[in-house]
Each structure stands twice: as C-alpha cells, then as structure tokens.
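Hey team,

Filing this mostly as a record. A colleague (T.K.) asked me to run one chain through the structure pipeline before their review meeting, and I want the input and output archived in the tracker in case anyone asks later how it was produced. No errors, nothing strange. Just documentation.

Input sequence:
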Amino acid sequence: MKLIFQKILSQLHLFILWCFVIAIIFQNVCGVSLPNNETVPAVIVFGDSIVDPGNNNNISTVIKCNFLPYGRDFAGGNRPTGRFSNGLVPSDIIAAKFGVKKLLPAYLDPKLQLQDLLTGVSFASGGAGYDPLTSKLASVIPLSDQLKMFKEYKNKIKEAVGESRRATIISKSIYILCIGSDDIANTYSQSEIRRAEYDIPSYTDLMISQASTFLQELYRVGARRIGVMGLPVIGCVPSQRTASGGILRTCSDSENQAAILFNIKLFSLIQALKLKFPQAKLVYLDIYTPLLNIIQNPSKYGFVVTDKGCCGTGNVEVCLLCNRYSPNTCSNPSNYVFWDSYHPTEKAYTFLTSMVVDNKIKDFF
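Output structure:
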C-alpha cells in the first residue's frame, strides 16, 4: 500500500509540474486583457520575413521556406506554410494576444476566406525592406506594394460587409509594421551598391524617410492603432556572426551600431508623427533589448545555443539552404534561440513577442 501511495504521489507531482509548464506557455501565447473592455476586430501586418506567414509562396522569388524542415513544429508537426521558423511567427502570436485569432494568414493565400479577411491578414514579404532596393534585389513585395494590397483589401471588405462595418474594422484594428533588418544585413552590409552612395548615418536616414512616407500613407488610408517594431540586434544573428564576426563568430558590432542608430531615429519619428496625428496611437516596439537579453542570458529562458541556428550547421543555412537534406539539423529546437541562421525559433518568438508587446498593449487604446 505504501508503494502504491508513493507512486500516486510521484504521478501527482509530475501532473502538477506539467500543469505549471502548460500554464506558462499558455500565458505567453494567449491573449492578455485589453483596457476598458476593448475588442479588436482585426490585426493587420506589414513587413518582412519575421511576420510573413506565406505571402512569398505565391510570388516568383527564391526567398521561400514552404518546405521542410520549416514548419516542423507547426500545428501538430511537419506543416511548412511559408513561415520562416519551425512553428509560429510573431504575427500569429500578436493576433492571439489581442484576442483576434490564433493564426494570422497571408493575404496572398489562395485559400483565404471572407472571415480571414474580416479578422486580419499579413501583407509581409520575406526579404523586403524600407529601402526599395532591398525588395528589388530579393524579388519580393516592397512596402509600397504591400500598401497597395491593403487598399485592395479595404475594397474587398467594403463589398462584403458595407461601408459602415468596414470603417469600424479599419479604424479599430491593430496594425503592426516589422521591417528593416534586411536593409542593414543584406543591402548595406553584403552589397557595395549602397555603401558606395551612403555611410550608415545617411543610409539610416534613407530608411527613416521611407518609414515616414509609409506610416503617413497608412494613417491617410485609415489606420489609427499602429505599432512599429525597431530593428533587432542584427549583428548577433548567426548569419551575421559568420559573415562579419571573424574566426570567433562574435557579434558584428558595426551592424548592431547601425540598428541602434536607426532605432533612435525611428523612435524620434514616431514621437513627431504622434504630434502631427493626435488621433493616432503610434507605439514604438523595442525588439533590440529583449533579443539581446535572451542571447546574453539564455539559461534564464531555457535556451542552450545562441550563436547557431538549429537547421544544418546553423552558421549559414537559411531559406533554400535550410532544407530536408541539411546535415546535422538539431533534434530539439527548444534549446535554440535561432531556427535557421537568421530567424528565431517559435519558442524564442514566443518569449520575444511577450517581452516586446505585453507592456505596450495599453498604449494602443
């Protein structure tokens, strides 16, 4: 009898532990309470691969990931959707946090339904940038065309539900802009085209000018609750360590300094636009500090590897180079901050999105 009791007690402890783990995960991913019992009709996202749920599947570009091992842990496993991760990406997690839906679909998804449109989509395209040249070099959807698709989206909603309901959806929705990393990591750092014309201060000015144009146009076509993500600690992602970090693959200080400079300018731009458009709720979302925190304190968040991706060697593999034949792909992505050499794992995205968004939600209302 004593032995049976001990076995039951042991199983009970295990059950309690699993409940605790599930509760933590649920808290990080699921919606948080919104101020004043607000409800959000839709989440609408613009940007690059961090928030692209599969738009690039449907355009002619090599910047794709609609094949394994991408999506290895998505919705039960082995479901590559075009998301640049092993599972969810921040656009999904943000939509869940605002209580809208668990997955934010790609606008170009041919299976898109009316209800998908009414509750929000992502127009983001992996490889896009503020600099128009960035999108052109990668043959992906530039910000200007993402905005054109949004205008098309507005017309579709009007045809489906009428002007009154459309006006509510457009004005009450949450808008997220997440873009710019490819400008620094690829167009500027890995190509001589822009370096021949600009130094980093003037190149970040070009990026800010494009950001200002986009945000003002987005406001003009009806957006009011707009969150803008700054640049992450670009120099510490595995690909940039490999390309610019020397034999020890240290973080690339020049790219990190470029990101910091851009973020300072972006914050100032947002403050200026808040004065210009007092009806808008413009929110700066800092991703640089949280990602650096995770990289510098991995054990605090349950990570082991911070300088390599899970896919292949983890040093260079991304997009087509990260495929089912990539040797040495890890068996446990939850140990890794990065999935491939450029994009975080679902677990890292979950922590990051909570750290970036949770304490800013009140600022959207």
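Quick notes for T.K.: Confidence is low (pLDDT under 50) at residues 1-29. The two ends are 59 Å apart (CA to CA).
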